[in-house]
Amino acid sequence: MFGWLRAGSVAIAAGLVAFAGAPGAAAHLEPLPAVSMVAQSGGPFDAWLADLKDEARGRGISENIIKATLDGIQPIARIIELDRRQPEGRLTFTQYLERVVTNARVKRGRELLEKHGALLDQVAAKYGVQKRFIVSLWGIETSYGRVTGGFPVITALATLAHDGRRSAFFRKELLLALEILEQGHISPQSMKGSWAGAMGQSQFMPSSFHAYALDGDGDGDKDIWTSLPDVFSSIANYLARSGWRGDETWGRPVALPSSFDRALSGTKQKKSMRDWEALGVRKLGGGALPTRNLESSVIVPQKSALSPAYLAYNNYRVILKWNRSTYFALAVGTLADRLAKP
Q1: Strand spans (E) along the chain
Q2: Phi-psi region at 111: left, alpha or beta (left = phi > 0; alpha = psi -120 to 50)
Q3: Is 43 helix (H, G, I), strand (E, B) or coil?
Q4: For the chain, what is the radius of gyration of the CA atoms?
Q5: 33 preceded by cis ω (within 30°)?
Q6: How far apart are the C-alpha atoms of 212 and 305, rounded to whole Å?
Q7: Are the beta carbons of 223 and 244 closer than 8 angstroms?
Q8: pLDDT tens, per residue, the chain with 342 residues
Q9: 132 and which of 77, 182, 332, 336 could share a cystine (Cβ 3.0–4.6 Å)?
């Protein structure tokens, strides 16, 4: 995953299209014709590319991979356009949730939970991550692998690495992507992803691939593009190593009193369930909070109202490590809950 850059799916990679609608939207945008560009700090692209090739060689990237991926490429103008687009805040949380956690997505997720139940049970037991959360992340990131992005990852990352805005970050990701190809996990022609370089059915950036991707089917490759054992194992591994607790859920919707102080909301504010209850926090419908006295935070995603509101536990914070978007994390939890209900 890619931390501060993530915003919720192949469509919202790089944290810039967080509320643009259902996951996968940007994947339907075709790259515009390549154009020569001079970035603010990158200089002429051809000179920049020559320097990058030298650095790649110094990191052990073979001439075959360099020629197959870097020879003759040019920046893609559409990627710069997408990177500059800042649509955050165009949707309320309620609108976002309605577009992302749809009845169709819930129905399909339940079907896939049953279809791949044996594999998911095996992965869940091995990594201590409930299978509904694995499927929920899979569903929101790429609509269960249906929309994974159509941009050539190397060219996309080169475009952003040459651009002056976050060049150091994307140059690092680009070199790591070349290492993935050098290791033979996927062919250069098949390495497709989002416009920001997020890859496969789990939408891992190259750095996350190196840190968390696994060979779940034992064939020697970490194939997050086509192998479901690899996809599910990689998602579970990320969550497990990020602090997931398999005996807890993510959180729950709650009702707040009209007098609730918004300054008490947010992940920096942690209290026990009993403390929140003393402040008037209740289950939806007015019932008492669960008896398990977990440390939790009140999350209020909309600035204009105290509803909807959620009580979020440790696993919610783990989802935020995957993607630092409140909307995204709440959507993952909501979808996971709906997948669990008949």
Answers
A1: 38-39, 43-44, 151-152, 192-193, 251-255, 271-272, 282-283, 295-299, 309-312
A2: alpha
A3: strand
A4: 21
A5: no
A6: 38
A7: no
A8: 444 344 345 533 333 333 333 323 333 233 333 434 444 445 799 999 999 999 999 999 999 999 999 999 999 999 999 988 755 557 899 999 999 999 999 999 999 999 999 999 999 999 999 999 999 999 999 999 999 999 999 999 999 999 988 999 999 999 999 999 999 999 999 999 999 999 999 999 999 999 999 999 999 999 999 999 999 999 999 999 999 999 999 999 999 999 999 999 999 999 999 999 999 999 999 999 999 999 999 999 998 899 999 999 999 999 999 999 999 999 999 999 999 976
A9: 336
118: exposed, middle or buried (C-beta count within 10 Å: 0-12, 13-18, 19+)? Answer: exposed
User: Any idea which residue has 């993952």 for tokens?
Assistant: 332
Tokens of 229: 């054992």
Residue 174 near residue 73, CB atoms below 8 Å: no
- pTM for the model: 0.88
What is the rounded distance in angstroms from the CA atom of residue 325 to the CA atom of residue 330? 9
Q: Which two tokens stand for residue 237?
A: 């591994």
CA geometry: angle 198, 130, 230, nearest 5 deg: 40
Residues present in the chain in total: 342
